[in-house]
Amino acid sequence: MDSNTLRSRMDKAISHFEKELLSVRTARASSTMLDNLMVEAYGTKTPINQLGNINVSDPNTLTIQVWDTSLLKYIENSIIKSNLGINPQSDGSLIRLPIPKLSEERRFELSKIVSKYGENAKISIRNIRRDTLDDLKFDEKEKIISQDELKKNSSEIQQITDEFIKNIDSIVLIKQKEITQV
């Protein structure tokens, strides 16, 4: 078992989790809020950042300078259907996204979304652990490694897994604190 490979795979799961968290909005406008937003354009789902320039015009407003104005309605509909709670305002080729102050209820909803993302990340980490353990068990069955090596490696894998799960928990707590801060 190569612990560097295991850590690398788990690091990728954490990176994906952190990227998902960027789309959960806090009290300030950020162009990363729209990173996971897909728009039905040209017959396929396209990331919104490939359809126009996204800018933060002030701490409470995002703007999207749309390159193809025929996609305005599709972009607006995607924003409305997303779980961001933002109402787009269009004036031809520019979409303004005023970021409303978060209500207590909305903060609670966003906190639950962060928890869900955290649980999904933990599932990914556990799946990586399971795959690695299955490989070790196969190696032991094929007499490539001994039972003692299997036990030693299994406990090391569990320690690494526990470390990454704790990391996810702390990231979730930090993000939830950021959301609930008024």
What would your notes on this structure say?
By secondary structure, the chain is an alpha+beta fold. Helix content is 56%, strand content 15%. The chain has 2 domains: 3-21 and 103-180, Ribosome-recycling factor (Topoisomerase I, Chain A, domain 4), CATH 1.10.132; 29-98, Gyrase A, domain 2 (2-Layer Sandwich), CATH 3.30.1360. The strands form 2 sheets. The chain has a 4-stranded antiparallel sheet with strand order 3-4-6-5, with no helix packed on it. The chain has a two-stranded antiparallel sheet with strand order 1-2. The longest helix has 38 residues, at 104-141. It is elongated.
Q: What descriptive keywords fit this protein?
A:
single chain; 182 residues; alpha+beta; Topoisomerase I, Chain A, domain 4; Gyrase A, domain 2; 2 domains; four-stranded antiparallel sheet; two-stranded antiparallel ribbon; 4 helices; 6 strands; elongated
